[in-house]
Amino acid sequence: MTYIINPPPRQRLVAAPPPRRTAKPRRAILIRPIVQAARDLGLDVAGLEVCPDGTVRVIEARAMQQQPQTLFDKLNAEGKI
């Protein structure tokens, strides 16, 4: 009969390192030509929407809804203040 005095150490399971991500192009580099093209078409660019899938939507100033005016803004426009 054989007795093992010092059993071999157990192997530890080590998680694999996460895969390296490739560098994505900077957003500013991608957005500037889109804004410039919209301005060349005569659009008044008020904003952009960038979706996770890479879709970029240009929002024109005329399409933006006007914010409701406060009482101060209304009275100031009427010249009462």
Please supply descriptive tags for the structure shown above.
81 residues, alpha+beta, two-stranded antiparallel ribbon, 2 helices, 14% strand, elongated
List the topology elements.
Layout: H1 27-40, E1 45-50, E2 56-60, H2 71-78
Antiparallel strand pairs: 1-2
Can you give a write-up of this model?
By secondary structure, this protein is α+β, with helices and mostly antiparallel strands. It has a domain at 27-78. The chain has 2 helices and 2 strands. The protein has helices spanning 27-40, 71-78; strands at 45-50, 56-60. The protein is elongated, with a radius of gyration of 31 Å.
Name the beta content range. 5-15%
- Identify the quaternary structure here: single chain
Q: Which word captures the global form?
A: elongated
Number of strands: 2
Q: How many helical stretches? A: 2
**C-alpha Rg, in Å?**
31 Å
User: What separation lies between the terminal Cα atoms?
Assistant: 104 Å
Low-confidence stretches: none
Summed up, what is this model?
The chain is an alpha+beta fold and 81 residues long. Helices cover 27% and strands 14% of the residues. The model has no long low-confidence stretch (mean pLDDT 79).
